[in-house]
Design a protein that fits this description.
The chain is of the alpha+beta class. The protein has a single domain, classed as Beta-Lactamase (2-Layer Sandwich), CATH 3.30.450. Helix content is about 40%, strand content about 25%. It is built from 3 helices and 5 strands. A 5-stranded antiparallel β-sheet has the order 2-1-5-4-3. It is globular.
Length: about 140
């Protein structure tokens, strides 16, 4: 297993994305809206327009959506957030909390098999949370 936390996160994202047809890419974001890891990865210091998950805007929007969803569920007394799905004509984004300080966002194509993806994303979010928890001081 890679030694650095970012490499461990990228390894988990790569494994998930390569195993799931219909996934464009994935990103682990902090609750502050910063990219912690992405797959496909982006060379350091470069924003890749061909990789939508590498965009700082995707990270910021994912963090805002997860915060808004959690607040909505709380106000409606519906418990903790399990996942958030936003779908469009060309695909969608699934956002799953991954520990108290991060979330896993996965971008899908329109024809993706969401049931399989939901299961894999939830499992990967737990692995991401374990990596982040293990790295905490």
């Amino acid at each position: 297993m890679p030694a650095y936390r970012v490499h461990q996160l990228e390894h988990e994202l790569r494994r998930m994305c390569q195993a799931l047809p219909g996934v464009q890419g994935s990103v682990v974001v902090s609750i502050e809206g910063l990219v912690m890891a992405a797959y496909p990865p982006v060379p350091e210091g470069r924003i890749d327009s061909d990789n939508p998950t590498s965009s700082p805007q995707v990270a910021a929007m994912s963090a805002a959506l997860i915060a808004l969803g959690a607040q909505t569920l709380s106000r409606l007394a519906q418990g903790d957030m399990d996942r958030l799905l936003v779908e469009g004509d060309g695909g969608g984004i699934i956002i799953v909390p991954s520990g108290p300080d991060a979330a896993l966002a996965v971008m899908t194509y329109r024809d993706a098999k969401l049931g399989i993806i939901f299961h894999a994303v939830r499992r990967t979010a737990k692995q991401v949370a374990a990596i982040l928890e293990h790295a905490a001081p």
